[in-house]
Amino acid sequence: QGLVEIEMISLSYNRKILLHQKDLKILRAELFQFENNEPAHRRFEFFNDDLIENGDSDHRLQIGLSNISYDTESETMAIFTQRDLQPNEKISLRLRYRAEYSKKLDGLYKMIYINSDHEKITIGSTQFEPTSARKVFPCFDEPSFKATFSLTIIHDSSLFSISNMPLQDGYPKNLTQYLTVSKFKTTIRMSTYLLSFSLIDFIHSNVVTSSGVVIRVYAPDTDINNLQYSTNIAARILTFYEEFFNEKYPLEKLDIVSMPEFMSGAMENPGHLIFRATNLIYDATRATVEVKKQIMMVISHELAHQWFGNLVTMKWWNDIWLNEGFANLVEFYGADYLYPRLDLLNLHLLYGWSQAIQYDSMNNSHSLSHPVNIYPMIDELFDPISYNKGSSILRMLESTIGPKNFINGLRTYINTYRYSNADTDDLWHVLNDFDVENSAFANTNLKLKTVMDSWINHRSFPLVQVDIHSQNAVVTQISYLKAKVEDRAKRDNIDPLEWKYLVNTNRNC
Q1: Which one of 302, 331, 380, 498 is the catalytic residue?
Q2: 101-293 carries CATH number 3.30.2010.30
Q3: Residues 283-342 pLDDT 10s
Q4: Which residues are annotated as a binding site for Zn(2+)?
Q5: Annotated binding site, which residues?
Q6: 327: buried, middle or exposed (CB in 10 Å: 19+, 13-18, 0-12)?
Q7: Could you say which of 53, 87, 173, 492 has the lowest number of CB atoms within 10 Å?
Q8: Is domain 1-99 in CATH 2.10.70.10, yes or no?
């Protein structure tokens, strides 16, 4: 069971509050005015397995509710008030509810692992991206609704809890012999899909970076000797990114948790990264060099998200490529910093560009900035187009405007939109303002947005054909997908010697 209190401001005359929930049973709903800029009724205690209010009620501050309705398709609930909410009126919505543990690896779910004593231990964790926060608590579950979160968890005393922020002073506290309360500091402004917590009994290794960030890597006790590599890698990359982005990591701690069961490779929740065990645990006696590299790349990717995705978040899921494309590119910067002799940045041509080309030649490909209005489609955007094509387009842009302009533009972009949201046009606007004297746009009337929109808003990639007739050449350009359908037979019969592919191996390409 849970209790959520949402503080908000009414922007207009209105009698309806619309928010997200999925499969929750709302037990009680109350709406209050603020009193002297402080919300009424904020003292709660735990008694006989139930949350109870401790304090007198002032019903003069309560706003009457007339109805609550639910829409399963849109995963929303609408709360109707008995009077108009006033413009700029500060209100607090309190909802008491019950929920079920998820049977999938999303929302709040449980799992079992076996410790070094061969005991079966039940632990719990969350996965909210993209739209599963609403399965755990009623909320405004869209990326543009950034807010701060104050989280309190009452849990089994055999486990401890980790969340985005450190615990408040004096916590955890024992409520009973079997129950513990953990109260966390208020988060930075962030989207609902980034809130997270885990209930575990793991061991950890730790390190403190040069800027004072405490990094802990958690795993079952069976992996006690396999955490140091990931811990050291995380510290070095985090320090590099702080300098690279010219923006300090915004939290005082970074917890990285290895989970025996997890939906994806890893998740970038601020201050509380969650990894699939195979992407974090490095056993030097058994692992291959490729496994070691994979762990480094995933850590580098998730740490890049602390700036691209967490600090600056896309306004809506159609621009998820801003999160994943940037992280997919910047992870190579981090890896290249760690092992410059391996020239890993240029491997992006292999891991990014080549995979993007392959996927983008399929009939089910889509544009980078892809309209999405129904929830099942959001999950489908987490694909090689958003990751690999997105990063390839950004790498191309870096080469076009020059690495110095590109990096300075990214720093300005982060500084301008930190703790806020941005879309693709916001990125172009920032980068277009930079000195492009030595870029490919120099001495032209081309605008960066005009050029880049053709890459962002259309699927597939251009196929350039050169037809030579005597001493003349005709150059045509069409979509590869169109050529694939209309000219397959012709292209299949072309002598391969007539086609030459040139790959520029310069580090800035």
Answers
A1: 302
A2: yes
A3: 999 999 999 999 999 999 999 999 999 999 999 999 999 999 999 999 999 999 999 998
A4: 301, 305, 324
A5: 301, 305, 324
A6: buried
A7: 492
A8: no
